[in-house]
Amino acid sequence: MTAQQRVVPKTVKNILTRSSGFLLNPGGQGAVCSHSLNPYSGCTFGNSLCGVGCYMRANGFVTKGRDWGSFLEFRINGAESYSANYEKEKRWAQKERGKFGIFCASATDPFLPQERQYRITESLLNAMLVLPPDALILQTHSRFVTDYLDIYEQLGKVCELRFHVSIETDSDSLPGLPPPASTVEQRLSACELLSQKGFRVVVIVAPLLPIADPEKFFRRIGQVASAVVIDHFIQGDGTPDGRLTKKTPMPTAMSQVEPRSVTLAYRDEIIAIARTILPGRVGVNADGFAGSIHRG
Ligand code: SF4
Asked: Is residue 295 part of a domain?
């Protein structure tokens, strides 16, 4: 935590948010998840590489005018809220969306360094052992995702469990931008450990940043994950032309490394390489989150 980051407790009425946006999967292959669940409000990775282009920066409802990365609210009653709302939300989800699937997390990281102190995610996972969803996706940029292997082992017996680990590039630095919260190798190693334990792991290359050696990168991903999803900030940041991201320093830094990387042609080139190396294991855009690569 930096001196500028304010961390405070907060209570929440219902920690289960009915899904909207990309979680509904505009590709029409069914909802990725019926609900999102955020153990924290705010994200202390906001000042690291992923935070530069983070879509939450533009979410005034959450930031309330504060700088992204400057605040973190830990939801002290998260597990109680989950248990209290479980039956109602599960019933709604199974009726309206086919199944009760939880995406954790869409607006923070469940495995922030502060999790080691406040244990909000851990308490939620324990609550899910008693009251399991039908499916759970744990989405992270953090190497600390491997902290709860014992809980995952039990959870995997009572619900469909999947890990999404974001690795947007094979490089740990982009000119003028902060480093990632966990290095590329730390995240790949976390994927490897989770895969070795028998869990389903998907590497999320989104938003796609310049990749120095795509063949090597995707070969390595193929060793540590079952699938990869690739998305570009154009079409991928919630706007058709990537205008949210264009307001951030991200495109300039990308251009300095690889000018073509700010175009969809670059995305398509990278997808073609990934498909050659990992046939049948590459998803694209929002469809990739719920598409056929995840079935079976
Ligand atoms: S971990 Fe996720 S929510 Fe947090 S700053 Fe990075 S992209 Fe945004």
From this structure: no
Sequence-distant (6+) residues with CB within 8 A of 89 are 14, 16, 18, 34, 35, 100
Distance from Cα 195 to the centre of ligand 1, integer Å:
23
Is position 271 within any domain?
A: yes
Enclosing domain of residue 15: 6-290
How far from 22 is each of 9, 251, 253, CA to CA, in Å? 29, 22, 26
**Residues sharing a CB contact under 8 Å with residue 90, sequence separation 6 or more, in sequence order:** 100, 133
- CATH number for the domain including 152? 3.80.30.30
User: In angstroms, what is the span from residue 107 Cα to ligand 1's centroid?
Assistant: 7
The tens place of each residue's pLDDT in the chain, 296 residues long, gives 555 789 999 999 999 999 976 666 544 455 679 999 999 999 999 999 999 999 999 899 999 999 999 999 999 999 999 999 999 999 999 999 999 999 999 999 999 999 999 999 999 999 999 999 999 999 999 999 999 999 999 999 999 999 999 999 999 999 999 999 999 999 999 999 999 999 999 999 999 999 999 999 999 999 999 999 999 999 999 899 999 999 999 999 999 999 999 999 999 999 999 999 999 999 997 666 654 455 43
In this structure, the residue with its CA closest to atom 3 of ligand 1 is 108
